[in-house]
């Protein structure tokens, strides 16, 4: 189970991936940080895993050389996912499972993490990772976050 990653492993992954780990506001879910760092370390094309609360506040963040401010990405990403969910309801479709942002330089997938406190997981990959693989990684990470204590 990935939720029990020791601090030495986390530090090794941070170093190997060239992490830039900006300080998030007090109250970030520190127990989730190792899950995100481990997920980032397993997939070379993955550039960011970001977890935000349902109101868009940053909870945990792992990134490989990403210069974006995680707090801003959290707010925008959560709004983007909520808009996709609202659009799906408006169109009479079943509940939205995710939304994607695709560009020539890479893709982002946003997934709602269900649980006692719903949150949003954003996963960003460069162009070397196929969108289907990114979606698989994001869903897998979201299920690990949902199962975490």
Give a brief description.
It contains 4 helices and 5 strands. It is of the alpha+beta class and 149 residues long. It has a 5-stranded antiparallel β-sheet, sandwiched between helices.
Cross-sheet strand order for the largest sheet: 2-1-5-4-3
Average residue pLDDT: 82
Number of E-state strands = 5
Q: Structural class of the secondary elements?
A: alpha+beta
- Termini, distance in Å? 12 Å
Tertiary shape: globular
Outline the structure in words.
- By secondary structure, the protein is of the alpha+beta class.
- The protein is 40% helix and 24% strand.
- Strands 2-1-5-4-3 form a 5-stranded antiparallel beta sheet, with helices on both faces.
- Strand 4 and strand 5 form a beta hairpin.
- Helix 1 crosses helix 2.
- The longest helix is centred in the middle third of the chain and has 21 residues.
- The two termini are 12 Å apart.
